[in-house]
Amino acid sequence: WTSSSCFGSGEGRREGDRFCWFMSSIGGERDIPGTRGRPESVFEAIFKPLIATVLRVIKDPSSPASKRVLGIFLLVVLAVYFLLRKGKSNASSNRGAISASVSSEPRITVKSEFDRIPVGKRVTVVANDALITQEDLAATEGEASQGNELRVISQAVPSVCELARCCDLYIITQCGSDATEERVRQALEEAGVYDAGLNPRKVLFCGTEMGRGSMARQLEPCLHIDTSAEVALSLRPFIQQVVGIRTPNNTRLESSSVHLVDGFADYFEKAKIAL
């Protein structure tokens, strides 16, 4: 196009000159031989009359046409404002619905007979001598162990089930065979720990004391329960609360900062805490 073909002559032509300069500056093309009469592009069809009208409004804002354009512009602004306001209102209502659904979730309450249960927090427990006696674990190792079944210490069952219900519980067992691992899983299932809420994938196994200490440190619990003096003392600087269960082999814990109890349930059951 040329300015004369777009806008005629006189004032319209001068406006057309300015428009055609604008179009060429953003990628429009001037007429070249052999292209006169080509169809307008979508960009030209939409923005040519719009920019020409804006130029007329700037030149003569008091004309009737300018007033109509200004009126339309104000209506568009108001429409955009109300649309944005409606969008914000919908977003706020959605956030309120989400908050309501979160707050409506049942809150876990610890049973009255228990204390020191860190609800919703991560807890790691080493099963050796805390949940299953080391003697029983050793009896399941080797060829002569066929038919030997494991049982969770009866006094520990209520407390470990409450931990499984209220906490993000991990149980670590140090053992030396796949057969023992399977029997530990079976013992936890029979004791109802899985039904109480323990994820079977959070039952872990290792072959050394160093391994169970490394697992606990990587899991970063707020509470760790162990029977190994070496593991408990090594974790004490890194874990908020470390509890040791007394055995003949961990007397070193007596004079340490590790909280020491006689049995697993003694740390959680109110009746035993009071003794």
From TrEMBL:
Pfam families: HAD_Pex22. Keywords: Membrane, Transmembrane, Transmembrane helix. The chain crosses the membrane at residues 65-84. InterPro entries: PEX22 (IPR037485). One of its GO terms (biological process) is peroxisome organization. This is Peroxisome biogenesis protein 22. It comes from Hemiselmis andersenii.
